Amino acid sequence: MHYVYFLRSLSRSTKTYVGMTEDIAARFTVHNAGGCTATQRFRPWELIAYVAVPSLTHAADLERYFKTGSGHAFWHQRFLK
User: Fold this and answer.
1) What is the 3-class SS of 19-47, one letter each residue?
2) Nearest CA to 74 among 53, 55, 49?
3) What region, left, alpha or beta, does residue 51 occupy, with left being phi > 0 and alpha being psi -120 to 50 degrees?
4) 45 Cβ partners below 8 Å, 6+ apart?
5) Do residues 54 and 2 make contact, with C-beta atoms less than 8 angstroms apart?
6) Please, which of 12, 14, 47, 66 could form a disulfide with 71 given CB 3.0 to 4.6 Å?
7) pTM over 0.85
8) How far apart are CA 60 and CA 8, in angstroms?
9) 49-66 confidence digits (pLDDT tens)
10) In a domain, 40, yes or no
11) Domain of residue 46, residue span
12) For residue range 30-53, what is the model confidence (pLDDT) as tens digits?
């Protein structure tokens, strides 16, 4: 399985991040350890949701959608309330 995951910064609650991985636990550890330049400034992070899909292609398409304006608005409205 492949996962599209959603993070929120615990140090600055307005900061969020969308990513994809095959191993959520390992990737989450990397984010909180500062191993990802896109997220290291706003550590620590909390995992707020994830979506599991069977293929890498589908996960990449979903991640790309959730990073667009309408996708960003959708997941913020559904997962952050």
Assistant:
1) EEECCHHHHHHHHHHCCCCCCHHHCCEEE
2) 49
3) beta
4) 7, 8, 9, 10, 17, 28, 31, 32, 39
5) yes
6) 66
7) yes
8) 20
9) 999 999 999 999 999 999
10) yes
11) 2-70
12) 999 999 999 999 999 999 999 999
